[in-house]
Amino acid sequence: MKNRRSMLFMPGNNPGMLVSADILGADSIIFDLEDAVALTEKDSARNLVRNALKTLEFVNSEITVRINPIDSPYWEKDLEAIIPCDLDGIVVPKASVQAVITVEQKIQDLVKTLGLKKQPRLLMLVESAYGIMDLQSIASASKNIDALLLGGEDFSVDMGIQRTRLSKELEYARYKIATVAHAFQLDSLDTPFTDVEDSEGLKLDTAFSKSIGFSGRLLINPRQVEDVHEIFSPSKKEIEKAIAILQASNEAKKKGLGVFSFNGKMVDLPVIKRAEALYKSAVAWGLVKEETDLC
Amino acid sequence: MQILKKATCGTLQSNDCLISVEASNCLEIEIESSVKNEFGEHIEHLIKETLKDLKLENIKLKIEDKGALDCTIVARLETVIQRALEG
User: Fold this and answer.
1) Residue A1 has what pLDDT?
2) In chain A, whose CA is at the least distance from the CA of B9?
3) How far is the C-alpha of B7 from the C-alpha of B29, rounded, in Å?
4) Contact with chain A for residue B66, Cβ under 8 A
5) Cα maximum dimension of chain B
6) Which residues of A touch B16 (CB under 8 A)?
7) How much is the pTM?
8) How far apart are CA A61 and CA A4, in angstroms?
9) A227 within 8 A of A202, measured Cβ to Cβ
10) ipTM of the complex
11) What is the pLDDT of residues B10-47, one digit of tens each?
12) I need a surface site. Which of A32, A47, A112, B66 has the fewest CB within 10 A?
C-alpha cells in the first residue's frame, strides 16, 4: 500500500512550525535536526523536537525525524532523545549500507534498554552517486526500511552538476530509486521542488515523478501540499473502478472463480491486488469512505 | 549543582522564548511577556518546577516570552542549563 503522497520538512528548531505541523495537510512530517539546523543549535533543536513529540498530540500526519548523519557527532544524541518518544519513522540522511546497520543497531540497543514495545521505521535518504549505485544493497540491508527518498540537491553537489528547473540531470537517479523501491515494495519519494513560487514547474515535475513510479514527493513548503496530493491521488473514476473490481472479485470468489471478466477484460490476481492497494490508499487519505467486507 | 557560565537559548520569534542564565547566590527569575498578567504566574511556576527537577537553586534567569507553549519553554530551559553547565 502506498502510504505517503507527501513528506513535509519542518525545521526542528522552530517552535511555531513544530506546533502547526499537524494541520498543514501533509501525509507525513519530517522534523529536521540536520540541514535546517545550525551547528550551534543542534542541542536546542533536539530538545525542542523531543519535548514536542512527548507533549503535543499529532493526529493527522505521520511523524518522522531526520537525524544527523552517522559521520557527525550528533546522531547518537539525536536517537537517544527521540527514540523514547512516540514517533513513526527516522529519516536517515546520506543513505548507505553502513548507515542502515549503524543506526538500526543503536535503535535496537535503545529499544532493549528502555523496554520499548515499538520501533520506528527507517526511511533512507539517498544523496550521493555511490548511494544511487548501491541502492539494492541499501534497500535489502534491513526489514525495517519503509521508503527510499531522493536528496537531489546533495546528489547534484556530489556529481558536480547544476540543478535545473525540470531536473533532467536527475533522471537516472530518479528512475533507479522508483524502480528499486518497487522491487522491494517500498515507498519512494522524489526530491523536493525548491522553487516555491513556481507552481507550474512543481506540477510538471511532479507529474513526471508519478509517471515513472514514485509514490510521493518530499516538500519544503506547505503551499506545495495540495498540488502534489492532486497528482499522486487516484481520481474519482480510478477509485470507482477499483471498488467495482473488488466487488466483482468478491462475487467471483463466491462462485469459486479465480479469474473473471470485468468490462470485457480478464481480471486476475495482479489486477485485483492493484485495485485493493489503490482502494486502501484512497481510504487512508480520506478520499472515500471504507466499505465493509470489500477487501 | 552550580552553573559555570552565562548562557542563552531560544529566539524572539513568535511562539518561542529567549532564556538567559548566569550564576547567582539565590534564585532570581525575571519574566518579560505580553501575556505576563495572564500567564506570568504559570510561567514562573513552570520554570521553578523544571529547575527543581534539574536540581538547580542558585541561578539568575531572564525569560523573554513570545507566546511559547510549555513544551517550548521547558526545552529552551533544559538547553540553556546544559550550555551553562558545560565547562
Assistant:
1) 42
2) A44
3) 15
4) no
5) 38
6) 14-16
7) 0.92
8) 10
9) yes
10) 0.94
11) 999 999 999 999 999 899 999 999 888 999 999 999 99
12) A112
